[in-house]
C-alpha cells in the first residue's frame, strides 16, 4: 500500500505538471492512475520487508526445534528440569519466585507455601491452578509436602 501510494503521488505530480486545463489533467490522471493500479508491486524488494525478515529470522546459535535459547532469558519462561520433571520457579498464584516450595501429593505441582496456605485457609474449595492439571480434588493442607 505504501509503494502504491508513492507511485500514485508521482503520477499525480506528473499529471499536474503536464496539464494546463482541468480536462487535460483528468485525462492524464486517469491514464496514470490506471497504469499504477495495474502495475504489480513486488514488496519483497522493499526495505521494510527486508528489515522485517531480518528481525523475524531465528538468531544465530538458536536451537531450531522451537525452543528459545537466547542469552537474555525472559523471567517468565525460566523452567528447571530435574530427572525428567519440568517445573517453574514461579508460584502459579502469586507469580513470584518460590521461596518455600511445597508439592501437591495429588498432582505433583509445586507452589510457594506462604501463598498456597493463604489461599486454601480462606477458601475450602480450591483446586490446582496449573493449566491443564488433571487433579479434580480440592487442595487440603494434608496434600502438601
TrEMBL record:
Q: Kindly tell me the pathway this chain contributes to.
A: Protein modification; protein sumoylation
Q: Where in or outside the cell?
A: Nucleus
Keywords of the record, alphabetical order, are: Metal-binding, Nucleus, Transferase, Ubl conjugation pathway, Zinc, Zinc-finger
| MF term (GO), any | SUMO transferase activity
Q: Which InterPro entries match?
A: Nse2(Mms21), Znf_MIZ, Znf_RING/FYVE/PHD
GO terms under cellular component: nucleus; Smc5-Smc6 complex
Going by the entry's taxonomy, the superkingdom of the source organism is recorded as Eukaryota
| Location of the SP-RING-type domain | 73-145
Q: Where mainly located?
A: nucleus
List GO BP terms, alphabetically: double-strand break repair via homologous recombination; protein sumoylation
Matches recorded under Pfam families: zf-Nse
Q: Which family does it belong to?
A: Belongs to the NSE2 family.
Q: What is this protein called?
A: E3 SUMO-protein ligase NSE2
Amino acid at each position: 500500500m505504501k509503494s502504491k501510494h508513492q507511485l500514485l503521488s508521482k503520477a499525480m505530480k506528473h499529471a499536474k505538471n503536464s496539464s494546463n486545463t482541468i480536462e487535460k489533467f483528468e485525462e492524464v490522471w486517469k491514464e496514470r492512475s490506471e497504469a499504477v493500479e495495474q502495475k504489480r508491486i513486488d514488496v519483497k524488494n522493499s526495505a521494510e520487508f527486508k528489515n522485517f525478515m531480518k528481525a523475524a529470522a531465528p538468531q544465530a546459535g538458536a536451537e531450531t526445534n522451537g525452543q528459545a535459547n537466547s542469552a537474555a532469558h525472559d523471567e517468565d519462561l525460566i523452567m528447571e528440569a530435574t530427572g525428567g520433571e519440568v517445573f517453574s520457579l514461579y508460584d502459579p498464584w502469586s507469580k513470584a519466585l518460590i521461596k518455600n516450595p511445597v508439592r501437591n501429593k495429588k498432582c505433583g505441582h509445586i507452589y510457594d507455601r506462604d501463598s498456597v496456605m493463604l489461599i486454601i485457609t480462606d477458601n475450602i474449595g480450591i483446586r490446582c491452578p496449573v493449566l491443564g492439571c488433571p487433579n479434580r480434588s480440592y487442595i487440603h493442607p494434608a496434600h502438601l509436602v
